[in-house]
Amino acid sequence: MNRQELINLIHERRSFLCVGLDVDKNKMPEHLANVPDGVFQFNKAIIDATIGYTVAYKPNLAFYEAMGIEGLVQLKKTMDYLHGLDKKVFTIADAKRGDIGNTSQQYAKAFLDPQGDFNFDSLTVAPYMGADSVQPFTVYEGKWVILLALTSNKGAFDFQFLPTGGDQKLFEKVLETSKQWGGPENMMYVVGATKADMLTQVRAIVPDSFLLVPGVGAQGGSLEEVCKYGLTKDCGLLVNSSRGIIYASKGLDFAERAAEEARKLQQQMAAVL
Amino acid sequence: MNRQELINLIHERRSFLCVGLDVDKNKMPEHLANVPDGVFQFNKAIIDATIGYTVAYKPNLAFYEAMGIEGLVQLKKTMDYLHGLDKKVFTIADAKRGDIGNTSQQYAKAFLDPQGDFNFDSLTVAPYMGADSVQPFTVYEGKWVILLALTSNKGAFDFQFLPTGGDQKLFEKVLETSKQWGGPENMMYVVGATKADMLTQVRAIVPDSFLLVPGVGAQGGSLEEVCKYGLTKDCGLLVNSSRGIIYASKGLDFAERAAEEARKLQQQMAAVL
């Protein structure tokens, strides 16, 4: 999905919500936790209930890998289901990959290749290894790399705010340097909602790029703050909520409750757009 | 495998060689590239031919993920085979993972859990997200986190050498800070052989820790230089070679040629130990 198609989708659905499909057998409804294809059934029910309110789904690979190879089978079924829907949606492999050039090429193939098992629209990538670790993800037409800039966790303060010689902190240096590798048509950035006041500094460097903003809800970030500092004329935001939506209930009503939570966020977003 | 067991293994085998199992269907022998279980058969032949000369195997996850779910089935077969051998060996999942705390826990489970599909001894982890992204990998008894410090690629110069306010560059700050998260018993560091002259600075901060050193061979690093600056009284090094060994020949003699290349490195290592 290219930039214009994403912008159109946001306006059509009056939403810039991303639902994080971080399936954990200890947190999902018990009646699905231990049945064959239970993870896929859970995802399918969440997708069916929320797709009217969301423009993107973001499975975090860690949760699937923790279930072993079977977890990845469940992820493939989920992606096949999303690809088969009439309603369009943007897909994000939250995988935080990155390796030397010839190896990042392999990760790009694994997640973005249209002939591959998953065929995601985008992939999150860690910046520590620099140019050749990121560039292989920018070559697929209509696909995106989403680079970690400022993450939503406590550990973000260990390195991301370090001074780097000039007047830029490390996360700003990452943003600045990455502009040599891609642009607003194929590169987004992760900026945590828990650090919404930093969005002004982010926007000073990447005024037009889309930002993937995790941390609203369970992690304590505020949607209002994120919009205040991050919104652009093209929207420029994908705001993610995972646990707050998919684990709104552990009972038989989990999908219905997920829809309610997604709808609440969508309505706040519609008011802003 | 704990630290003392690893040191014993190094002295027993008179080697600190790690063989990188980065299987690429375009580079492996044609007679195995497109047969069922060909990737596992290739790995098995490489392992059987080289295990007398090596103490560790390091599959890079990217190459398996690029083959889709079937690639991970081949990786599981490879790990099952290694676990079933009489000869002990240290295993490294070169996966360069890292995410917020609750998510890194899931990655730790995926790769290090003895009940999981893979049960590796160790996992490479990217430092950008800080403490809570790394600590979940340190809790498994006898297992290791291998943190990226100074990588072997060109892109390493984009961020890893940035000044950070004091007199430490970013990679030195990563080494220094990480000492709060683990010690020489459960944490190693990736330091590229292509930057062997930096090993003095690395050893000033982590004098006793094991270093995983990629980049000897195909990437141009020198074993002699690495030993000169990196060796400790406990050895303290695992030196990786991937392409130089596993793709020494594309013919029917690939395993024999791999053994020759591994043996050459082992003999240089024996001379140093």
What does this structure look like?
The structure is a homodimer of 273-residue chains. Chain A is α/β, with parallel strands linked by helices and 273 residues long. The first copy, chain A, is built from 13 helices and eight strands. Chain A has helices spanning 3-13, 30-33, 38-50, 61-65, 69-84, 101-112, 131-134, 156-159, 170-178, 199-205, 223-230, 243-246, 254-272; strands at residues 17-20, 56-58, 90-97, 122-125, 144-150, 187-191, 211-213, 237-241. In chain A, strands 1-2-3-4-5-6-7-8 form an eight-stranded parallel β-barrel, surrounded by four helices. In chain A, helix 11 (223-230) links the parallel strand 7 (211-213) and strand 8 (237-241). The model of chain A has no long low-confidence stretch (mean pLDDT 96).
Question: What is the chain-wise order of helices and strands of chain A?
Answer: HEHHEHHEHEHEHHEHEHEHH
Tell me which protein chains meet in the greatest interface and how many residues each side has.
A-B, 58 and 58 residues
Cα end-to-end separation of chain A: 21 Å
The shape of chain A is globular
Overall radius of gyration of chain A: 18 Å
- Proportion of residues in helical segments of chain A: 40-55%
